[in-house]
Amino acid sequence: MQWCDNDYFQKVGEDFVQWYYNQFDNTNRMELVNLYAEGATLTWEGTLFSGREAIAGKLTGMPFQQIKHIITDHDIQPTFDKSILVMVFGQLKADNDLPLAFHQVFMLKPLNGNWVCTNDVFRLGLHNIPVESQ
Amino acid sequence: MQWCDNDYFQKVGEDFVQWYYNQFDNTNRMELVNLYAEGATLTWEGTLFSGREAIAGKLTGMPFQQIKHIITDHDIQPTFDKSILVMVFGQLKADNDLPLAFHQVFMLKPLNGNWVCTNDVFRLGLHNIPVESQ
Question: Which of A89, B7, B31, B134 is deepest in the core (most CB within 10 A)?
């Protein structure tokens, strides 16, 4: 498949989403770090983590024992630079906490024959409930 | 300011957010189209609009008379390709409807001396309310 083929970047994005959250929930989160580029940037709930080492520290230092992500939907677009923009939204449940809405954006880029994540922005939905709906 | 200066891309992103939603709410939405690159992509609630003409049709064809966006927060990151990734979340109120949460992602790229939007993904938060919280 070629880059300009809509199916191609959709498939890369969908495979990434499936792999990422399966890895996050079911295996060693340390392995997630391998998919980030060396100079990648993660913004987690408004806090910036620059570089793979800082991202590794954040991902593996989270305090819960168990987590499960349920993906509601995702949007996938190609960019002008032949990267892929992925926006995911869904719900997560950590340990015995109530489920929380979240949304997360990834930028995937082909580097040295592999797709790597260069940008990751994560936010919980709990900041974003309209006052009149609460 | 240089590209590598954190303040620079933060300022470009913040200026864009302020300008975009002010323009959306208070002036002719048709003018928004000028900030999109010719081959830009918009995904609006899961539906893809490719190119400036399609985006213009979507933005100006929305059925409400009045709209107001209230921005809760935004996250801004530089990308490897010297573009800027902006994730915005907040609430919007159209006409007399109840306010709704939304989140929106923009990719901004410098083209011919101007910052233009190459990617835009918009989602309302109403799909994403955890069942146990409803």
Answer: A89
Average pLDDT, stretch B55-78?
93
DSSP label of A129: -
φ/ψ of B52, rounded to 5, equals -65, -35
Residue of B nearest to A81 (CA): B81
CB pair distance less than 8 Å for A80 and B105: no
Contact A18, A26 (CB under 8 A): no
The reply to whether B134 falls in a domain is no
C-alpha A68, offset from chain centre: 14
For A66-75, the pLDDT digits (tens) are 999 999 999 9
Q: What is the bridge-based pairing of β-strands B100-111 and A114-124? A: unpaired
Alpha-carbon span A78 to A60, nearest angstrom: 30
The Cα A28–Cα B57 span in angstroms is: 46
A-chain residue closest to B72, CA distance: A128
DSSP code of residue A65: S
What string of DSSP letters covers B9-72? HHHHHHHHHHHHHHHHHHS-GGGGGGGEEEEEEEEETTEEEESHHHHHHHHHT---S-EEEEEE
Are the Cβ atoms of A89 and B118 closer than 8 angstroms? Answer: no
Number of domains in chain A: 1
Nearest to B107 by CA among B74, B73, B69, B76: B76
Q: What single-letter DSSP state applies at residue A14?
A: H
Q: Which domain holds residue A48?
A: 6-125
Is ipTM strictly over 0.95?
A: no
Q: Considering the entire predicted model, what is its pTM?
A: 0.91
Chain B positions in Cβ-Cβ contact with residue A103 (cut-off 8 Å) = 87, 89, 103, 123, 128
Q: Flag whether A53 is in a domain.
A: yes
Residue B63 resides in a domain: yes
Which residue type, as a one-letter code, is found at position B18?
Q
Write the CATH number for A38. 3.10.450.50
